[in-house]
Amino acid sequence: MEIFREWGLTAAIFLPLIAVGVMMAIPRAEEGLHKMVALVTSLIVAAIGVVLLFDFDYDRAGEMQWAVEIDWIRIISAEYAVGIDGISLPLLMLTLLITPLVIIYSWDHFPEPANPKAFLMLILVLHTGMIGTFVARDLVLFFVFFEVVLLPMFFMIAVWGGPDRKYASLKFFLYTLFGSALMLVSFLALFFLAGGETFSIVGLSDAVAENGVSRTAQIWIFGGMLLGFGIKVPMFPFHTWLPDAHTQAPTQGSVILAAVLLKLGTYGFVRIAIPILPEAATVWAPWIGLLAVIGIIYGALGCLAQTDMKRLIAFSSVAHMGYVMLGISTLTDWGINAAVFGMVAHGLITGMLFFVAGSIKERYHTLEIKRLGGLLIQAPRMGWILGFITMASLGLPGLAGFWGEFPAILAAYNPANGLNETLFRTYMVVAAIGTVLAAGYLLWLLQRTAFGTPSEEFENDPEIVDAHRGEYLAWAPLLFLILLFGLAPGLIFNVTDPAVDANLSECFQADLGDGDEDFFEVGTCEREGLDVALANLGVTSTAEGE
Amino acid sequence: MVLSFLAQVEPFERPAIDWHAVAPELILLGFGALLTLLDVVFLERGRKYTSTLAGIGLLATLIPIITLAIDGQDRFLFNDAYVVDNFALIMKALFLLSGYVVVLLSTNYIAEGDYWENEYYSLLLASILGMVVMSSARDLITIFVALELLSIPAYLMATWRKRDLKSNEAGLKYYLMGVFASAIFLYGMSLLYGVTGSTILADIGEVVNEGESTSVASLGIVFVIAGFAFKVSAVPFHTWAPDTYEGAPTPVTAFLAVASKTAGFVALVQLVFVAFWGRADVYQPLLWVLAAASMTIGNLIALRQTNMVRMMAYSGVASAGYIMAPLAIAGVSGEIGDEALRAVVTYLVIYAAMNLGVFGVVMAIARKTKSAEISSYAGLFHYAPGLTTAMTIFLMALAGIPPLGGWWAKFVVFRALINADTFGGYSLAIVAAVNSVIALYYYLSVLRTMWADDAPDGDLAPLRIPPSLIGAMGLTAFATLAFGVWPRIVDTVSDVSLLGLGG
């Protein structure tokens, strides 16, 4: 076990890269071998994840585990520091799950112009970047991995994408890069203003709390991070790259983008921006909340106007990430727990939606909603799966989507100390209206694609068959987890809660001064509130361990 | 009368020579002479060994450099006119390694093009010898000799495709501009000598920094810096670069873009840190303007280029701006000065790897397409994915995307500028940041053509790349990645200081 604790994370990060090196040496014609190497690597990495999952000490979920610290760039005291706590664990596991599934899904269905070698190599590079981002505990390291993700996705869209791929890929790249440039500037400013001694997240958080980076500077720095992470999320009004990127990306790219890449942004808020700059967070929180609810409503209205299924799902992502951001903006234990849950749930559900959309596209060669219809007749199993995930996506209790949205909305009822209660309650009402709209557009989507009779042009199309083995293999784990987390949300809440608690109390204790006790009282009230709410719904308590 | 005059002259006494310290120069000279002899003795039969021998010569020269580095002692020769310290050693090693990569790039190009080979490699070694001497030159005369030694062979090499009009134009332009720059430098040098009565940089530093005879000394400083601004192709002295780069044989272009530019910077930092350091009021504003103008104008013009080599010429102009930027705040304090110098050295080391790599790929592609037009790169991904990946690595490194080398180079420059905590530093950092985004656009559009466009005429025949070219690209790609992932390698070697000597 010791060896896993020391090397597990490092191996998980770099194994995909080693595999890329191996694949470079294998000639392009050996497609089967390439697929095997990629799949086996992703499975080994996932296996490491499973070992870590069993070795994780859930009683100490608030602390960093399997922490490794090695001197990296001495001259700026950047470290190779990785580790996992309750917040990063669920997201890391999501990543470790999605990548092998994407590879399985691709097996016989590489998008044009095929070339599995390059395609799989890009996926593995992406894998390294995503894992690295979720385990990095040093800002420079975080930044490096955050950027590693960018190029493979750019190429995936630019080479394997739809007809408008060039425009979409460039837009994706420039938007994200603009954000990360601002993010880097914020990191550097923070580094220098906090004494220029460390890039470690905890170190910076302490430094900011102790020798007081001036309030104005904190607010500016937080603003930079807000743009950087907010573009990645994406928050309204920086979301315009998302529908284009999703529509043009190949199915695999869309799945990874929706399931994992968007989470890098929200994870940045939870892991970096708020713990390091709590004071600035309270200043920005109302604005974040405002953009979040605008995103919820705007995304939902956008969905209602779409004629393309993938574009519709993309806009629904904007709305769903709005709930996550609303949860974060409350700055409460609750809200952030809900946000982390929401990230995982959205990853599973929207990833799944894009999978199905991809499979529909493969059969019908179009995603234009008005030309589709009758999926339940032509491919009944796929129709039912689509029905299941649209239910999950609209937040049906008992499925994972519910636990991302509902607690986030509730959290807005009672935001952290120092935030305007009335304002957040207004947000709550707006967000609740958003769920109705969500039900509207998702059911409408289901009705127009799955119900009814097939249109004439596809009526006797022999290509339209039900889901095949590769698809079942790739989808089953996701469907199972959507149901499992829906029934037993405690599986995630119990892991995230101690970590969220540790992160929040650490930073707010240092900052709120005389408001301290008050804040924690509110905190406990909320927690009890959650228990009551959950008990009423007949679900075991989640906030406190069972 | 003559006899009595001669009688008064003391007999010439050979100054004590530290043979270990000058061993690199002697070995390089020896190999250069050997190459010439080989040609004279074996004529055509020696042809196929020349490039190998040149490569071995460059690597052999590294041996005394390593022993000198292990010895770790600063050595002062010829009344301090020639200094072998850490700075000199790292720059010498950089010149030799860049030179080695240029030999790898040249091997097939020169052999297949029916050019004179022996002369080419002899001249290349002579030019590198000039650069190696430049790294140690702490005296105006020595700098001048080194400058001419490295430039004159380069003028000749630029015209190597002598039946091609563009190559002739390249060489002639480079020659005229270079001579003009030399003249400017000489004029500045004479002013400095007139004011200080010495050609040793350290002595000049002592007098100049006192602040006496300000205007003449200032004029001297301005002229000397302007002279080297030509060499590093900084705006407004950059006009030769695009034409020369486009017309010269591509390996020579790589050599000019990397080694020759680095040599200009070596001279520039020695002059700034050893001789002028106390006169920040003169050189800081001058270098600020040069750096800001080079970055901005270089990048803006690069946006409009359709030819890869010309684009790289303008990107090189912009890079000169980035490298020059830390010098514009070097005089703030001793600590900042050291940091600025380290930033320059770090940038030069990483820049050499990235840029040589780009030219390697350009040459490999040109073997099939016979063109460096960006539009001819369309669809490259479909028939040469390896080359496309290599180009992606190099261009994204130049753009500063982590974890590829360039991000660290940019990072140290920004850090130096911000740490200076002056208006000049901050404003230049903003200019540099805006320019990084502009640069990203044109690098990215090249990549987009390579990855996403369809090949012209659907021609997907694969490319054959000779082993030496693969070696050159492999070496540079490895260095580019290693510098980015593990910047400590560069930090260790770039931990140098020049300020103790003169300032």
Count of alpha/pi helices of chain A:
21
Q: Number of domains in the coordinates of chain A?
A: 1
Distance between the termini of chain B: 46 Å
Low-confidence stretches of chain A: 509-529, 536-546
As laid out across the biggest beta sheet of chain A, the strand order is: 1-2
Structural class of the secondary structure composition of chain A? Answer: mainly alpha
Q: Please outline the major beta sheet of chain A.
A: 2 strands, antiparallel
List key phrases describing it:
heterodimer; A: 546 residues; mainly alpha; 2 strands; 74% helix; B: 503 residues; two-stranded antiparallel sheet; globular
Walkthrough of the structure:
The complex is a heterodimer of chains A (546) and B (503). Chain A has 546 residues and is mostly helical. Chain A has one domain. Chain A has 21 helices and 2 strands. Chain A has a two-stranded antiparallel sheet. In chain A, a hairpin with a 4-residue loop joins strand 1 and strand 2 (78-84). The longest helix of chain A is centred in the middle third of the chain and has 32 residues, at 333-364. The two termini of chain A are 27 Å apart. With 503 residues, chain B is mainly α. Chain B has 21 helices and 2 strands. In chain B, helix 4 (86-112) packs antiparallel against helix 19 (467-485) and helix 14 (334-369) runs antiparallel to helix 16. Chain B is globular. The chains are: A mainly alpha (546), B mainly alpha (503). Chain A binds chain B through residues 24, 28, 72-76, 113, 115, 117-118, 143-144, 147-148, 150-151, 155, 158-159, 165-166, 169-170, 173-174, 177-178, 181, 185, 188, 192, and chain B through 381-382, 385-386, 392, 396, 401-403, 407-408, 411, 414-415, 418-419, 433, 436-437, 440-441, 444, 448, 451-452, 486-488, 491.
